[in-house]
Amino acid sequence: MKSIDAVRIGVGAGFSDDRLTPALDLVSRVDLDYLVLECLAERTIARENLSRAKDPDKGYTPSLHERLQMLLPTCMEKNIRIVTNMGAANPLGAARAARDEATNLGLGSVPVAVVLGDDVTELVRSNPGLELLEDHLPVESLMDRIVSANAYLGADVICEALRTRAPIVITGRVADPSLFLAPLMHEFGWTSDNQTLMGQGTMAGHLLECSVSVAGGYFGWPGKKDVPNLADSAFPYADVGRDGSLFISKTPGTGGLVSVQTCSEQLIYEVHDPQNYITPDCVMDITGVDLIQAGENRVQARGAIGKPATDSYKVTVGYTDGYIGEGEVSYGGIGALDRARWAAEIVKERLRKQNFVYDDFRVDFIGMSSLHGKLDERVEPYEVRLRLAGRTQNRRAAQAVGFETRAMHIHGPGGGGGGSDPKVRDVLAVKSVLIPKHLVRTQVVLEN
Amino acid sequence: MPIRVYDIASSRAGDKGNTSNISVVCYDKKDWQFLATHLTADRVMQEFAHIASGPVTRYELPNLKAFNFVIEGALGGGVTISLAQDAHGKTLSSVMLGIELDSSQTT
User: Do B84 and A362 touch (CB under 8 A)?
Assistant: First the structure.
């Protein structure tokens, strides 16, 4: 096996609805070794489990088809291996779908390595005493409402999948940074006892996992933080050396920005204690990190430490928790706020008279208080959009929120308009437990 | 003249469950000490009192000329059950940037 000293990893998606074309720009213009597609949010797997219950072939990330149709020809031609968590609640189904797409594209029979074992629903059901991290109640308190339970697996099992040499590796739930750390451990033979390398590899993953966020996306601010040509923003990639050296860049000839400031914001993003960022692979300490502008749109990151991993996996438990109903209607001009307030009181009174009860109820005056509250301190704008939302275990009560709000078109104060269609959605909530790693059986299956 | 956090730092909010973490990253290293003195966890809790139950924990990252504020009970019970339009609390970074600090004690 040839010894290599540097690996180039790009990211082609940072959430399930991420933009598509920047990924094609990246694989076309940059010689990557790996492309990671990260598509799972906290409750995505619970939602996909419901899709799978309706159709056993579904349950993976729906955009898999579109993404692979666009990216596979170039990735196969340039020998760029794809690592993705688009398997969601059905990694084997995703693998079959990926192989079908390859066949349809005329690429022949493309092997796909599948990571299994994150689905620990039965394990959680058989351990009702497990403590929920959020409220310290036993998981038993959710038992009859549990939809799914998935452990955040780590880089070790992804490495095992990479050893099959399959051009595509598909996982369900794994920790996002592990998707990036695994190719580095695989290529360089890094082991988990080297704290510098585990830290640097995990930092690479954390900097890239939100795709454009490290490259000027979600950063710009007129007159304060300039981002050139944001409309043509690009996905980033990392150059990682065998010694753990790490440089972040982005597709050349595109918009966006890779700077110390963009990297700082992303490095701290969704971290709590910066000395102890827990992943399945290590406990990362970023307090000693230095970020250095190494060139235009190129930042060096050094100094992360990956302390030894904990002996448990974090598990996200998805469960159903009733319904949320919403409605909106607008008021403009003279007395707009007074009329919106009056409408809100009328809707609430009508809901009360129908004996509907809500676990939580909220009135927003969009344009004034829907984001940061403090209605009484805000200046009244020309127009106000009223929004009412209620969460309840009763589906009819949820429907009534939007129904009664829309009725403000004729049963409310004068001059309201633009009422929305009543909206009702099932609530899929999540809580977390920890499960000892030794209880979880991981497995790699090669589909070829 | 009060100084707004906005004048000297950028900020980004993230979510985990019912907890918001909001970073504050100075543009210039020389301003970090000013924020270390004035932008305390108590000051931030005061500004978020109408939104969050707290507590607020401040973590210092001098190497990155930054702070990380972890604000518990900030997201309407949690992203998945919240009734808020911005259930993730992504816009809460703007509340942080709007905090005014007394600059008369600057060194």
Answer: yes
How far is CA A176 from its chain centroid?
Answer: 9
d(CA A380, CA A58): 48
Strand order in the sheet with B9-16: B9-16, B19-26, B66-71, B56-61
What is the SS3 assignment for A301? Answer: strand
Look at A272 and B19 and tell me if their CB atoms are within 8 Å: yes
- Domains of chain A plus CATH, in order, are 6-118+153-310 (no CATH), 320-431 (3.30.70)
CA distance A362 to chain B (A): 7
Closest CA–CA distance from residue A443 to any residue of chain B (Å): 28
Q: Any alpha helices (H) in A222-335, and if so which ranges?
A: 260-268
- Is residue A186 within 8 A of residue A113, CB to CB? The reply is no
What residues contact residue A176 under an 8 Å CB cut-off, 6+ apart?
A38, A85, A205, A206, A209
Q: How far apart are CA A362 and CA A392, in angstroms?
A: 12
Cβ-based contacts of B80 with chain A (< 8 Å)? 42-43, 321, 427-430
pLDDT tens by residue, A338-396:
999 999 999 999 999 999 999 999 999 999 999 999 999 999 999 999 999 999 999 99
Architecture of domain B2-105: 2-Layer Sandwich (3.30)
Residue B105 has pLDDT above 80, yes or no: no
* A298-302 vs A290-295, strand pairing mode: antiparallel
pLDDT digits (tens, 9 = 90+) for A92-143: 999 999 999 999 999 999 999 999 999 999 999 999 999 999 999 999 999 8
Residue A3: pLDDT band with limits 50, 70, 90 = low
Q: How far is residue B26's CA from residue A344's CA, in Å, rounded to a whole number?
A: 42
Identify whether the C-beta of residue A142 lies closer than 8 Å to the C-beta of residue A134. Answer: no
Can you list the positions of beta strands (E) in A22-63?
A: 34-37
